[in-house]
Amino acid sequence: MKGKKLYVVLAGVLVLLILAISMYNYIYKSHRDIATERVAYTISAAQIHMDFGKEDKMPKYVDQVVQIHGKITVIEQNAIVIDDKVQAGFIMDAPNDLSIADQVTIKGRCVGYDDLLELVKIDQATLIHNN
Known about the structure:
The chain crosses the membrane at residues 6-28. The chain is an alpha/beta fold. It folds into 2 domains: 1-30; 36-130, CATH 2.40.50.140. Helices cover 28% and strands 37% of the residues. The protein is built from 3 helices and 6 strands; from the N terminus they run H-E-H-H-E-E-E-E-E. It has a 5-stranded mixed β-barrel.
């Protein structure tokens, strides 16, 4: 009887230990490094903006790594707007060598569509190509 009780207690402690380790790993897992992730979609700024107008296409881009090309229309401190359709936010300030009307290709995580500004939002963007 005493041996059976010991096994039950040890099994309970083992289950709690496994649960605690699993929770720790889930809570403290490392953040995604978008710059090193594989691109899920390569698309133009105009096309992704048009796709966000279609209900069936919208969810396929959200939280995916996308590569977008187009012409810079607005430059902000830490973001650019491409073709007046996509806002790409950089982790740090936008690269200094960018200017209006440059053709660029950026890579970042699509976070959705801003109904108020009518822009597709990209965060954690990195500059891939600048003409």
